[in-house]
Amino acid sequence: MNILLIAATAALGALAHTSPEGKDSLNYKLDSAVVAVSRAGDRTPVTFSMVGREDLRSTSPLNSLPMLLALQPSVVTTNEGGTGIGYSKMTVRGSKGSQINVTLNGITLNDAESQEVFWVNIPALSGILGSVQLQRGLGTSANGVGAFGASINMSSGAVSPEPFASADFGFGAYSTATARVSAGTGIAKNGLYAQATYSKNLTDGYIRGAFGDTQSLFFSAGWLSERSSVKFTYLMGDQRTGITWNGIPLSAIQTDRTYNPAGEYTDSEGNTRYYPGETDNYTQHHLQLSASHLFTERLFASATLNYTKGDGYYEQYKTGKKFKAYGFGSEDVADPSEKSDFIINKSMDNGYWVFKTELNYSAEKLKIAGGTYLSHYTGGHFGTVLWNPVLGNLKTGSNIHRGLGFGHGTGSGDGWQWYDNNSRKTEADLWARAEYAPSEVLNAYVDLQYRSIGLRMKGIDDEFSDLGWNGGWDFFNPRAGITYTPASGHKAYASVALGHREPGRSDIKEVIETNNAAGTSLSLKPEKMLDTEFGYSWTGQRLSASAGLYFMEYKDMLLETGKLSDSGYAIKENVPRSWRRGIELAAAYKPIDALRFEANATFSVNQIENYTAWYEEYDNIDDWHFLGQYSVHFDRTTMLMSPSAVAAGRAVWTPLKGLSVSADMKYVGKQYWDNTASEDRCLPSYAVMNMSASQSFSLRGKGDITLGVYLGNVLNTLYEADAWVYRAHFQGGSAEWYQEEGLFPQAPFNWMLRLTVTL
Hints:
By secondary structure, the chain is mainly beta. Helices cover 7% and strands 57% of the residues. The relative contact order is 0.11.
């Protein structure tokens, strides 16, 4: 793959033997116009921070995007495997991944069904991004669908005006290896250009079975004229990783922090074994075709057509499951209620179409932007049984693991299929935004968005419930604010925004299962949030500082309370009132040109009012006869995984030309596993320090070479960054509570070496 990529790009390089006059300013003008439409500007009353190209490139090459944003205000990150490759998550002000809208070049990357972004599916983004804007709160409506706490707006960057080639290689702890090659033609005299980046990442991970094998390919080609551009972009992400989402039981943390129960079983001789096929596999292809035109210096328009294709599967070894749980009857086995071991495969196949238009008018005092966002998503879900010790291999053409006696599926879908369902989601959005500056010190802002969403589901789920459902929502999301700049370097702003969020597919699926099984008529309301923000910043020659207040007030927030239907289904309920309120502080100081300090801190309260936690109740821990449900009411409690204090600091020293040394520290306060604010179920606060150093050498005007070393968790802090918990209550016997939990330990001290060559 690498050789073909380099050869193809070199051939395209023949186009770039000459360059048009003014191509740098032309490229900058068109690219800036595209980015400006979907981002907040310097005077927009929205809380945001920027991460530039240099900061993205200077971090450890194994980091996924959440880890790259770890030092931004109010951000908390975790990696399931404990390092940086594999499944990574982030929260912003406590808002989870499904509430964070993510766009690449204005196209939403959030999965339409789960509303999540699975970062492992798009690895090594730092190598292709030009900049990232992180908006905290509801942000601007141009960020697209799903923004309900934060937005991440990514740009693949401007086209390089000159031909280039680069290679980046890394090697580090836990058998981690990374490689990235990039090349581009520059902009030819006739306006044509092409550039491409390929990356490959391998790791064993910190915990057992947390291996990662990921790759990505980015390719763009297009044409630029004096006022127009046409661009084709292709992004492929491919991952094969071990399953790590179960976490580690609390009892194992003290004895073996690398223990992973995924794939564990007992063989016929009583030995503990691990299924080697316990893997998660997914491939995603993003294709974008965009066109833009600068009608005048003030009027700009663009349109983008996007298609995203994704398919994948995960394979698991299941122990102690009944035959009838997978649809086997008496004609298949003697006793369908008998328990046995199974290897199962759960697959998905989806497609996502988007057509987006934007129009932007910018004058001295007035800026107006508007657009449409039309999308259509289809997703299929399938489940198959691949092997059972009684029935043998159920998958045609399976590979047999020697000495283990069972088949290993390849995700093709062959086998005993026990469920098949699909969904279709359509959306039509209209938005308009205006900023007006009546004077040099005032800037007024208004932003209006209308969303119309339709969702249809059908088929049978993995518990044999009919998922037939057809519905939709219509939302109006207004935003307004004002910015006051009384003097050079001073800025104050205030804004208020209203947002709505529809339930996800899994939320609706749970309600359907409950209604079908228990004959109820439960329904879910959309979530609502009123976001009020106040901010002040001051920028001087050597020192800058900012402070912001936020009040995110929720109505009908969807939470899993532990409540079950009569048939045992988990019910997600709307909580009438909850809130996230806090203050964000940030400062930067540059005492001399060669030394820079940066720091930020967030202090918040994240609470739920009138909350009831529900638990399954049994007679005793020996017999487990189900009696009903046990409840505990809280007048006010703290939201799970929402620390009240988060802080970060960084120092960068550049004593010599080409030499950079940095150190950073991240502090995250105590986090509760559930919504009961119990001190027995919480992650302690932790602080993690990282260091890095890099030295660049010039190759006699023909490029440069950079050597880097990255030291992670240099204080060897043993900490867990995420957790979940399940509890059941007993009326009698010696035990009152039964508990299962999963914690996610992060790697102790680790290291990474890096070599980058740029021509």
